[in-house]
Structures
1.
Amino acid sequence: MGKIVGVGSLIVDIAAFTDHFPVAGETALGKTLRFGPGGKGSNQMTAAHRAGAEAVIIGRVGQDRLGELMLAHYRSEGMTAKYIKLSAENETGSALIEVETGSGQNRIIIVKGACAEITADDVREAESEFASCDLVVTQLETSIGSIMECRRLAEKHRKPFLLNPAPFQEVPPELFSGTDWVTPNETEAEFFTGIPVRDRDGAAAAAAALLKRGVKHAVITLGKNGVFYSDGNREILLPGVKVDAVDTTGAGDAFNGALAAALTEKMEIETALKFANCAGALSTTRHGTAPAMPTRAEILRCLKENYGI
Ligand code: RIB
């Protein structure tokens, strides 16, 4: 079993399911409201854990009901909460999510709350985990200081660093330079490169631009159209796995967590992408984010059915 460590967001998702997204000023009728554990960081760690890795998150929650919900998730999954601190000042992060039932598409507003106050010191306190891990993983939902410290410790302990640059925002240029894995979706890839990603050529051009910024492996997720990979020598385009999607929220997190788990196992790159593709697709067949992450057995079944592996 490989081990992943990283700073990440712990956010409670409040999702309303509706027939159609309301326009400004409209009140739309919803069908269901669900509360559940979410946050890109925590979702990716959960996905990696269910895919077979040991996953160690560094984060913060508030001393409130939402924080209790997040900690209960870690207990029920059997994941360590050793580096999840309780904030003295801020509430637990939360996300307001609208899901359109027909398309499974979503719109999200996040309030970072305690996630925004995670410090570089919080990360340093977990340094022994960096020394013993196989991969460092982070996203952009915590403070830049904490993310840069993850990057520094990955370098210090010579561990590969995977950055899922979501949600997109300006970052210090050195965050990309020399980074082993960067995994934007189409929108994020366009934000960071200025190149629209609408087809294979767009994905290849955006990947090339990321490689030019010093990224070693660019992985651009294309939603239901699959994933594009390039390391400058090899390009792979994998179509999406066909499923009946009910909620696409967290699909990128399922992909990233499973990819991280596969990389710690030194899986060959095309197989690792297929493994992650299956995890992303399977997660859309259930409601919610962390609770929708597939198990390793489910991913392996999908690999067999779709790729004959
Ligand atoms: O990627 C989906 C996640 O983004 C949700 O769980 C929500 O919490 C936001 O962080």
2.
Amino acid sequence: MSKQRVLSGVQPTGNLHLGNYLGAIRNWVEIQQDYDSFFCVVDLHAITVPHNPKTLAEDTYKIAALYLACGIDLQYSTIFVQSHVTAHSELTWLLNCITPLNWLERMIQFKEKAVKQGENVSVGLLDYPVLMAADILLYNADKVPVGEDQKQHLELTRDIAVRVNDKFGTKKTPVLKMPDPMIAKEGARVMSLTDGTSKMSKSDPSEMSRINLLDTPDSISKKIKRCKTDLVKGLTFDDSERPECNNLLTLYLLLSNKTKEEVTAECQDMGWGQFKPLLTETTITALKPIQDKYYEIMDDRGYLQSVLREGRRKAETVANETLSRVKNALGYLPLF
Ligand code: TYM
């Protein structure tokens, strides 16, 4: 039996942080062997908010290099750049004309980001989830490993697929494959270091709120030293009154590869003064090999380009086939 397909992506905006790593990329690495895996750098999504044209290309290289540095293995996975496969834009247009406007207006991330943009909010920001649906549906993805914040976009993707299939397919020959979200039990929602009730995010104006994958040991140490904690002695998971405690213990659990039981036993009698240096050391040790590999890959531009060229070739084959299927179902005059 052939392997199921996985597709996911990260935007080349700003630095990747522990949320992106623990909520998404690390899980990709864990499952990649069991699937036919496609991971893209979603650079078309990156311009849905104002962007810097001088850094976009370099940021795209950086994310691709980080995928490899985190352990994405080309033996199992394909890495490519979204804008290199033009089918993404084309399927987005077709899906736009099938997606009701009010489905998009309901999206939480749109509402949150639109507030920040004020009058400058672009049509692209509203349309962001349709482009994401196109990314997923083009590859007939069975599973989409993402963080918790993407759940609503996955539901929308499924709704769009149902609508296309109902309107243009038959029960026996659906046009689009129905994808399932894959959301990890731990790490699906890494919280800010300065406020345990809000998500760790690239767009938080405070650098102190997040640990980036490329942060120096000094910077990691400073951020953890100053991160928000509480006055309670003894560290425990799952106390709703202690969101920061739960978040920092979860980071320790994931970065040390220990089980919840082990961390509970180890930390239940600790104070913050003992725990913070432990978390600092663990974080620095976990990120060191990723950082070393990242700088090595970034130094070899020819290699990185060859990875993305080959990725594009593989991605295009799958994507163009789906695009033709959709255009046929919609009744377009085929090429001749
Ligand atoms: P982006 O770049 O915002 O986030 C990339 C991935 O990181 C996860 N993530 C988090 N996980 C846990 N805790 C956090 N604090 C945290 N912050 C971010 C996100 O859930 C995501 O998995 N729309 C997507 C990109 C995208 C995509 C796709 C994903 C475009 N097309 C197709 C999957 C399939 C996004 O927001 O990326």
